[in-house]
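Progress report, Aim 2. The chain analyzed during this reporting quarter is listed below.
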Amino acid sequence: MKFKKNKTILLFCFSLSLLTCWVGWGCSKSKPTSAKVDDSAIRKVRMELSQGDYESCVKDSKDLINQAPSGPFIEEALYLHAYALAFGRSDFQSAKPYLKQLLSLYPSSLFGMDAQKLLADCQYWLGHYQTAIKEYKTLMTVYTGKGLDSYALFQTGNCLLLDDKVGDALAAYRELTEKYPTDPLSDSAQLLIANSYIKLQNYKQAKVELQKLMSFTRDKDVQDSAQKALRQIEEEESLNKGATVPE
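Predicted structure tokens for the chain:
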């Protein structure tokens, strides 16, 4: 699965929390007053990212990260910096340390789940499939029930399939289809179950899985892919039946 396709399907789910922070200042005999924290720098970074100006986002978020002492928006700056590196430069390797820093120093961060997902995806896009599987497992364990369990299972299956561990990939895809049958990724997982059987040269079972998929999917792209795979299997079977054994 290529990065651009993952980017279209997967990234997909980016949202930023707008944080308004107030700090109370008090003195011994006066009523405490409130002063608004200057958020102009982080708002600038958010705007740059929303406009697709990744290079400015990388530079300005890095300035916020390097502030001494750290400002109130350090967690968001770490995430946006990594995001801009990954999606602006496809520099997944450089994005990883910032995500790890965010997850290590701020385990309860509002950006923790998105950071964990992006870290797992970076490992996947780099082809570090076994490490990616561990990160997707962490995503499911730490943020279970937050809406990303099916995605983590799907990506785990993809990692295993790309690592030529077809049996394990099948188990991951089946777990997804059984646990989350109405999830949009369930149809894609069912298609990959069929493709896995094709890879195993078990064409009979592949046809069963494709026909099952065709009976319920409403996704046109998945439907077209399933029909194409069925035609290829049937053509192959026809050629085999028509083949003659030389005397």
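Residues 106 and 183 are 31 Å apart (CA to CA). The domain at 142-235 is CATH 1.25.40.10 (Serine Threonine Protein Phosphatase 5, Tetratricopeptide repeat). These observations will guide the mutagenesis work planned for the next reporting period.
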